[in-house]
Amino acid sequence: MTIVIINGPNLNRLGLRKPEIYGSKTMAQILLDIQRNWPDVHFVYQQSNHEGDLIDWIQMSNDKYQMSNDKCLGIVLNAAGYTHTSVSLRDAVEDCRLPVVEVHISDIHAREPFRNISLLTDVCTHTIIGHGTDGYKEAVQWLLENEN
Fold it and tell me: How many domains are contained in the chain?
């Protein structure tokens, strides 16, 4: 079984960029922790600073796993800044037949007003906000517990 993890802009800088907000763990460390916790799950990880890449990966994951014998439990999506701005990304999530769990490391509701609104929450299956980098593990656990 597979779980796809997709990260948006600037998340390639985890561990370096604003550690007081986003923590000191790199994404490589987070992924290693996840893989150690669930060694029998295949994780596909993608990150881009480009909006279209995120949309393409959501669509490809949806199409690939709908047409294969490999079971995909869903997508863990941290769209970062595109959460607040991208109608096109929202449309891709809404069109996706896989469960999509929205993750935000910081509490977007306690930050600047422009970060308070998520265009994704109402089209995602589940949302985890403000649990630090542990939110990724919680999202994986949620997908495993809510497997169809």
Answer: 1
Output the pLDDT for position 121: 96
Is 22 in the active site?
Answer: yes
Of 22, 65, 82, 136, catalytic: 22
Specify whether the CB–CB gap between 55 and 94 falls below 8 A: no
Annotated catalytic residue 104: yes
Q: Whole-angstrom Cα distance, residue 50 to residue 57? A: 11
Query: How does pLDDT run across 34-91, given as a tens digit for each residue?
Result: 999 999 999 999 999 999 999 999 999 998 776 666 789 999 999 999 999 999 999 9
Structural domain harbouring 10: 2-145
In this structure, are residues 92 and 55 in contact, taking their beta carbons and an 8 Å threshold? yes
Which of 42, 45, 82, 104 is catalytic? The answer is: 104
- For residue 93, give the amino acid letter: V
pTM of structure: 0.92
The two tokens of residue 105 are: 């490391």
> b/e per residue, 107-132, with b = 16+ CB within 10 A?
ebeeeeeebeebbbbebbbbbbbebe
CATH code at position 125: 3.40.50.9100
